[in-house]
């Protein structure tokens, strides 16, 4: 009887110890999960709102054919929320598999990379995702295969036993999250010239010509489209003749207007740039008095008169002074 009592108390103590360990593991997992969620939400929102907002603005304008406008705050918040829902769904599916919580963010990271890997297609004026249309489903299948393999082979149990403490689990998950963020940043579309171009067009749409000129000035290399946008913004300010050559310029006179080959707008409507016929069709010949071409021509005439006046002044100085003082050799 005494032995039975002792064995019963021993079993109950073991059971309580196991339950306590499970509670500790569960509380540790909750802490790691919350930390990973905060890291993912902050990174995704800042990445979309601060870095890829111009790309998403251009994509929505092109795909909707100018019918809708991308809001930076709402767009970044909505995409972040959707990607978080995807992670929650993956976490539910992997509930029976003891994989690192950070690995459940892999599908969301792949979707984010796919979304921001779009690059402009010069030929048709649209956007192309390149090889990501094939790579995305392949990588998702590889991830699903890895999860299934970890579950059936017991690899997840072995890896969980290697990092038993809370802080080790935290650092391992943060390391995986860092790798995912580097993956997104390295494989997304990062053409600085295109970002500055879209930002300049958006500033012109908002009437912020100084902001547009700041975007043009930030670009390291000259570009035909940025030359056109700089000329347009300066013309609207009425200072093109005085300040145009302060910016990095590229191209000839054809670069001052959109010609659909070398220069073109992405989000700024051509109908605002050009005038319209009475039936509403675009016309590059019949322009409004306030259009860019009339302002550009006025500034060019003004610049030409400045040059002529300077030449006349120099000629007058040459005639007034002795030839010896000018070192003129006959």
Structural features, described:
- By secondary structure, the chain is an all-alpha fold.
- Helices cover 67% and strands 2% of the residues.
- The strands form 2 sheets. The protein has a two-stranded antiparallel sheet with strand order 1-2. Strands 3-4 form a two-stranded antiparallel ribbon.
- The N and C termini lie far apart (134 Å).
Please sum up the structure shown.
The protein is built from 13 helices and 4 strands. It has helices at residues 2-51, 53-63, 72-93, 106-115, 132-153, 155-162, 166-187, 192-205, 209-218, 224-237, 240-243, 270-273, 292-320, and strands spanning 119-120, 127-128, 275-276, 282-283.
Task: Describe this protein with a few key phrases.
two-stranded antiparallel ribbon, 4 strands, single chain, mainly alpha, 330 residues
